[in-house]
Amino acid sequence: MKRLLAPLLALALVAGTAHATEVRIGYQKSSLNLIVLKSRGILEKRLAEGGHTVKWHEFAAGPQLLEALAAGSLDVGMTGDTPPIFAQSAGSPLVYVGFEPPKPQASAILVPSDSPIRKLAELKGKRVALQKGSSAHYLLVRALDKAGLKWEEIQPAYLTPAEARAAFERGAIDAWVIWDPFYAAAEKTVKPRVLTTGEGLSANQSFYLAARPFASKEAKLLQIVFDALSDNDDFLEKQPAEAAQVLSRAVGLDVPTFERVIERRPSFKVTWLTPQVVAEQQRIADRFAELKLIPKPVTVKDIVWQP
């Protein structure tokens, strides 16, 4: 990871960051790497060496986070694979600056334990809850494709994770498409039946994005952020039990829930986007465009940061 944005250093020498800057970072409850980084205070210490500070902002999900980034209220944030596509289609000034490995087991389509729904095809005509423009949105699209159903053949209920869980518990929806840690928490307390995970359907990758003006002007600060994430990656990989405790204290869910969440993620290593990752993002974007679920088609590589 320390080499991820190495080319940015040359740019930083030109752009400079002699002025004191507050780096505004957006995260959500699924942003495990950022939550642990925030809890350990590593980034604060490193930024302070240059006279800089950091401010953290929590969001319900990726779409809300990227709305804030587009509005100029954030500098950097992490989301799933789908929110950047919706944001790019809407003209948001953002760029991809890194990604984490696939974690298809970390998202799922859930139904109540006593639901008669046993197959994806049986979602036809059913009310399915999801966060619009989130990674869950693409998982549902792929699941319907696999089942031979059209998007118009279900009743999407666009709800935040908290709203969807409440609706799920009171029986107001037939199925719920959700990601960790909400998925793991529901497994433990609500005891749903998993209709399918993302395995074979959606890679469910997480992406780090930055406001384009910030990426252009504050290259050195981006390097500091990613260097801190590199060290944090090692902590998550080598000390998962301690990491689960840190996450539990920060988020408010119990330790076993986060042990399950960490178990489902093969790695937290953040790396520069590869051509293969860009191609996969483009496939997602093209499918949403075909379904007319985004305002206009996009070319993903146009917003992959090239210093």
UniProtKB/TrEMBL annotation:
Main location as per UniProt: periplasm
Residue span(s) of domain Solute-binding protein family 3/N-terminal: 22-238
InterPro entries referenced in this protein's UniProt entry, alphabetically: ABC_SsuA_sub-bd, Solute-binding_3/MltF_N, SsuA/THI5
SMART domains in alphabetical order: PBPb
Location relative to the cell: Periplasm
Signal peptide per UniProt: 1-20
NCBIfam families the record matches: PRK11553.1, SsuA_fam
PANTHER family recorded: ALIPHATIC SULFONATES-BINDING PROTEIN-RELATED
Protein name (Swiss-Prot/TrEMBL): Sulfonate ABC transporter substrate-binding protein
Species of the source: Chitiniphilus purpureus
Source species taxonomy: Bacteria, Pseudomonadati, Pseudomonadota, Betaproteobacteria, Neisseriales
